[in-house]
Specification:
Blueprint: E1 2-13, H1 19-34, E2 53-60, E3 64-71, H2 77-93, E4 99-112, E5 127-133, E6 136-141, H3 145-149, H4 152-169, E7 176-181, H5 193-199, E8 203-205, E9 212-214, H6 216-234, E10 240-241, E11 247-249, H7 250-256, E12 268-272, H8 277-290, H9 295-300, E13 302-309, E14 325-326, E15 333-337, E16 341-343, E17 358-368, H10 370-391, E18 396-401, H11 404-409, E19 428-436, E20 441-450, H12 454-458, E21 462-463, E22 470-477, H13 478-489, H14 498-504
Parallel strand pairs: 10-15, 14-21
Antiparallel strand pairs: 1-3, 1-4, 2-3, 4-6, 5-6, 7-18, 8-9, 11-13, 12-13, 15-17, 16-17, 17-22, 18-19, 19-20, 20-22
Bound molecules: serine and zinc ion.
Length: 514
């Protein structure tokens, strides 16, 4: 894709621009076009059309001058403007003139290239007009000087390129490469485990969408899995327990990248405009009289959303380290969190206990140098393999897939090799999948990821030695483990492998419904 930029700007000065001052300014324009705007441009680039230039004749008003800028991809018009602004002060200072302000009167970007069918231009407040004709997208912008300082035009061009890439790759961006497949294991069921659990009163649907109430029997199995994870993996590998927040403010998602694309799946969180009871009295009264909650009116009395409920579990840990430099001897650091639920608005996708809006997971997280991070991921793979092979006796496989953070940010996985550490390990996610005899599908029940320096960078975390800080994480889904295990082994304990059956012990049949 090729981009071209055009801009008109008015520079306001503190007094009248005399003929001598005009001459000085014209000279500065020439020098800028010939020298200043060429600084930092790659050697092979020689065509001035590629570079920021002040074009046409400067139009002088009494205290002001109108300038036209144009550029290709190098020293883009706004960079040229700011470089010019820096030079103007000393030059005009000699004529007792100070720069009082800059007004951007027009800004136009054209991007030419192969626009795929179905491409649509971003809809944003800065874009006054947009049109796509003959492979050229024209964006007319409404931008201020400070928008230009914030590099809005550069980000728009990048956004357009990303959208083109997304539309070109479509759904093909998801990767899946098999890494390991276990052998066959004894199967004792071909029923849907959720339906079976409901039949036996282990779980009941709650009144919220995609949410279950887990009875004692279901929780016994959850806790047995937790104990196995603690005894076989988390304990021996030396992970320490922490509690991560479950309400995630925008600031965390800005740094984690979720702010780029997680909106359709968030459970949003709002706060009352005030906690003054008199402000809310009629809302309660309305319910007392009608038996209905006055939702329309509540919407008017809340602020936010201030963020959302826990989505990926590890991002809200990172403010604990934000801005810190970590001592070499505390690394690698290994932690985990099992303090609460994750929430995703799954819409049409809800199914059984395995695809729900509220779920429980142990999130395992580690960080250190690249080598340390990769080593822990390898050790985890080994520990998981032992658990699924020797204790749960599952039919399972694992596959390299699009990194979870890319998927959650709505980024396209083009399959280009990611960042590699010294030992050649690639950043990315390994999904663990279990076979579901009742549907002949495979269910992703957990993952292990090497996230590279993404999180340490996003939250400004450094290592004392100066080495790059890397991190990894692994989400162990308890509903998913349960669905996978029961789909293969059924609900009768006598068919379960002893390593699970012994921990569960006798099922607690607390309720009897008449
Ligand atoms: N944070 C990772 C995810 O959301 C692992 O739990 O998939
Ligand atoms: Zn994570």
């Amino acid at each position: 894709m090729r981009s071209h930029f055009e801009m008109n700007a008015t520079l306001q000065f503190s007094g009248e621009i005399t003929t001598e001052a005009q001459a000085a300014l014209k000279k500065l324009i020439e020098d800028s076009n010939r020298v200043h705007f060429w600084k930092g441009v790659p050697k092979g680039v020689t065509d001035p059309a590629e570079i920021g230039q002040i074009t046409g004749i400067p139009q002088f008003g009494k205290n002001s001058v109108d300038l036209s800028f144009s550029s290709g991809p190098y020293t883009r018009v706004h960079d040229a403007l700011f470089r010019f602004r820096k030079q103007v002060a000393p030059v005009m200072g000699r004529h007792r003139l100070g720069l009082r302000g800059i007004e951007v009167n027009g800004y136009r970007i054209t991007v030419s290239g192969d626009f795929p069918e179905g491409f649509h231009s971003p809809r944003l407040p800065f874009i006054r007009e947009s049109s796509l004709e003959d492979g050229t997208l024209t964006l007319v912008l409404d931008v201020s000087e400070s928008d230009l300082e914030n590099k809005i035009p550069d980000r728009l061009v990048r956004l357009v390129e990303e959208k083109v890439q997304a539309a070109t790759y479509g759904g093909k961006g998801e990767h899946w490469d098999l890494v390991f497949e276990s052998g066959k294991k004894p199967r004792y069921s071909d029923a849907d485990p959720t339906a079976e659990m409901v039949k036996r009163g282990w779980i009941k649907h709650s009144s919220a969408r995609g949410q279950w109430i887990h009875g004692p029997q279901s929780v016994q199995l959850f806790r047995a899995f937790e104990k196995i994870v603690l005894d076989e993996i988390i304990g021996p590998m030396g992970f320490s327990e922490m509690i991560f927040p479950k309400l995630v403010p925008w600031d965390v998602w800005k740094r984690s990248g979720h702010a780029k694309g997680v909106y359709p799946e968030i459970y949003y969180v709002c706060t009352p405009k005030t906690r003054d009871p008199s402000f809310w009295e009629d809302i309660g009264d309305y319910f007392k009289v009608t038996g209905e909650v006055w939702v329309e009116e509540i919407k008017k009395r809340i602020d936010g959303p201030i963020g959302g409920l826990c989505y990926a579990q590890c991002p809200p840990f990172w403010p604990f380290l934000q801005g810190e430099t970590l001592a070499n001897d505390c690394l690698p650091a290994r932690i985990f969190d099992r303090s609460g639920t994750s929430h995703r608005y799954e819409s049409g996708g809800i199914h059984g206990i395995e695809r729900v809006d509220e779920f429980h997971r142990i999130e395992v997280l580690w960080l250190g140098t690249a080598e340390q991070t990769v080593q822990i991921a390898d050790d985890l793979h080994e520990a998981y393999r032992h658990v699924f092979e020797d204790i749960l006796e599952l039919e399972w496989r694992c596959a390299r897939v699009t990194p979870w953070f890319m998927a959650q940010e709505g980024m396209i996985d083009t399959g280009e090799p990611g960042q590699e550490c010294g030992c050649g390990a690639r950043i990315g996610t390994m999904d663990y999948e279990a076979f579901l005899p009742y549907s002949s599908n495979w269910l992703e029940f957990q993952n292990v990821s090497i996230n590279g320096d993404k999180y340490p960078k996003g939250f400004s975390v450094k290592i004392q030695s100066g080495a790059d800080c890397w991190s990894g994480c692994s989400g162990i889904g308890l509903e998913r483990w349960t669905a996978a295990f029961l789909a293969q082994k059924g609900l009768d304990i006598e068919n379960w492998p002893s390593g699970v059956a012994e921990i569960v012990g006798e099922l607690n049949e607390l309720f009897k419904f008449l």
